[in-house]
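Budget justification note: compute hours in this period were largely spent on complex prediction jobs such as the one shown. Inputs:
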Amino acid sequence: MAFDFVVNGKAARSEAPALTPLLWVIREELKLTGTKFGCGTGLCGACMVHIDGKRAFSCQTRISEVAGKAVTTIEGLSVSSSHPLQKAWLDERVPQCGYCQSGQIMSAADLLAQNPKPDRGQIIEHMSTNICRCGSYPRIVRAIERAAREG
Amino acid sequence: MSIASHNVEITRRRMMVGVAGLTFAVASGLRSSAAQTARSTDVVLSPWVTVSTDDTVAIMSPAAEMGQGSLTSLPLILAEELDADWSKVRVVVAPANDDLYKNPAFGFMYTAGSNAVTSYFKELRLFGAQVRKVLLANAARHWNVPVGEVTTAPNVIIHEKSGRRLSYGEVAAFAEVPAEAPNVAESELKRTDQFRLIGKDVMRIELPRKVNGTAQYAIDVQVPGMLYGAILRAPVEGAAPQTIDDAKTKSIAGVVRIIALPYGVGVIAEAPYAAFEAKNALNVTWTHTGKAWGFNSEQALVAFAAAARDLSQPTKLWAKEGDALAALQTAASVVESEYRNDLVYHAQMEPLNAVASVSRNGDACEVWCGVQSKTIAVTVAADALGIKPDKITYHDMLLGGGFGRRGHRDEEYVHDAVVLSNAVKRPVKMMWTREDDVHNGRFNPLSAHYLRAGFDASGKLIAFHHRKACDEVTAFQDPVRFKRQNGRDGIAFNGLDAPYYGIPNRLGEAVPRESGLRTSSLRGIAHLTNIFAIESFMDELARKRAVDPATFRRELVKAYPRAVSIIDTVASMADWGRKRNASALGITYMNYSGTQIALVAEVALERGSGRVRVPHVWVALDPGIAVQPDNIVAQTESSVIYGLGFALSERITIKDGAVQESNFYDYHVPRMNEIPEIAVKVASTDNHPTGVGQMATPLVAPAIANAVAELTGVRLRETPMTPLRVKRGLG
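Corresponding output:
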């Protein structure tokens, strides 16, 4: 059985077993390795992608669940890192080891899509799904505020 | 700026021999390792610098990049003295070659202890200045003018008298490189006020790749024909599989091979998820070999505390000044206290993994990994196969966090990948799950501290005695270093005696335990627990003497102006003298490897739940010359948050030798909704640069404990200060 879906605007197909987490299909079949494996339990957010425009833990999403849906990964967020969040992420020098940052940016993009002018409390509430062990949190907040401001 | 792979593009056309005393043999070694992808336009001016005729300057970066920024800051230091135009610099990851690129502090390529900039600083400036001199000499010869008349601007040689200029690339095209490296006197190096790059923030080299998913970590590597490996490692160090029931595993689709190993069972499958499922389906019993069977961390901590207090226990002398025991005997008053720390897990975001590809007949191997020592990784891979290190093709990958976890002599996850690949003679991506990463964790050791202080009749602190009971970490983490250091274990005991406090009689004693646990350096290293004890104790002493805790410390360090200044700075930032209504402040200070750092935490308590809230943290640090100031701020924010987890929630428990926690649901690291507002002030001073990567981490827990004491009068003596422990403490 094959599952057909769309990734970053392009048709994709996987013949992985139905229970396979989307994460592994994205990373190892489609070779889109910007989406990361962090915990496998939906607790750290390193695997965050968008499914039909809403953020989702790709490690908690079975491949069978995305049939017919549109998935966006960090690689598809923008052309040439031009998303306001990606620019703000560099302006605020957010990443340290960088491993969690794809997931952080995908979470933040979901927030701004729903709420273009979030206040600090809303940012913190929304972003607390994502762990950054390097503790780049203060800069993530600043980068989201900047992206919201500068668009 | 751009970055090249580890394959250095250089030719042997003009090789500078004798740079920093390098022998010709060493230079030849570089030549053979690097000549594979030679570009005819490149001119090797030294093992560190290659200038291309298109005016790009390639500079080697010798450290592992795990988020701390060394990939950028080290070549930037060389570029400063070379007077290179940073926009034309291409940073090249240095190949695995200890002779050329070793960290001077360790004698091999090893990134740890927040010392990359500190240790390489002098050499990199020298190497940069030497190459600049070679360029100057060549231009002077070319123009037939005295070398004293030529100077440089970024990437340009200038002869002001005649108004002539040559770019570095133009000079490189005809440069003759002397057999001996030119001498550079200290006085010829730039003064701090002449720096163009040091002290000015530049974009970290790899950052743009970290916002679009293109940064490559080992876990991202794709090799044609690659299989996926998972490993069930023994729950207790030293145990081996006794019985292996793999019936369920075999039935999982995609399983290629099940491999019994001396320390566990490996599974190879066609897809990662199948490999993990197959590993989880194994049913293995273990031999009771290994020392830690029966070990229980809660009970052990009680026993450790008793050992720390028991002066008849055998000790290893760590540090001694004057005669603390005699001074304690004659002191007018003696204060004693005790502190305890649970085991801590690194929790780097990238679960440990590596990719290996062993050749068909097992005589060569390619390996992709993120490690704190690349030369160790090469040795580990070679030893796993019983082949020579020159048969290993090593690919340097970014580290998704290190924090000390990737700096062990055995780099066991690299070994795992190589043995799995060797079993099938195909490329294997070996990944630990998060659960594996926790269960196979190597932890900051359990420790118990017993401290005594003596005051004379005038109230002067005259004696300090600190005994720490904990496992010897270096013995496990790096037996080679442990032996070389004659059993002196800095990873477990550094900073035991707080020499910077100028107490005339000091005694620091290690009370080594041998639990057989897997232990490791972790961010903050020995200071993490030692400073929790010392800075909590200093606070207790100040309160006993009814002296303001900031003033108390200030008095002790009054001979060191940098220390006084940094304490004053943080006190001013936090408005230390101002009483808060529902919260209180706690202050801490230390001199960590020369970096002067002071931290104040503001704490509020939810008395019902025992939850400690930390609304604000202020940090001031003086790391000498601040090479990349904003990155120092970032590292300090990061250190604070890491220290917050240690202080409040992070705890590994061991029962019958085995780790009880599994993932982020039972090992709690700080999230965004738990972190304080953090204010950082970097005081750059004209001193040799010292560490910045972990300095605030050890100060957070004692600052919180000190603030809790100020707020409630209750002293918390154990990390993490969990709600349960806080409630118990408050009675």
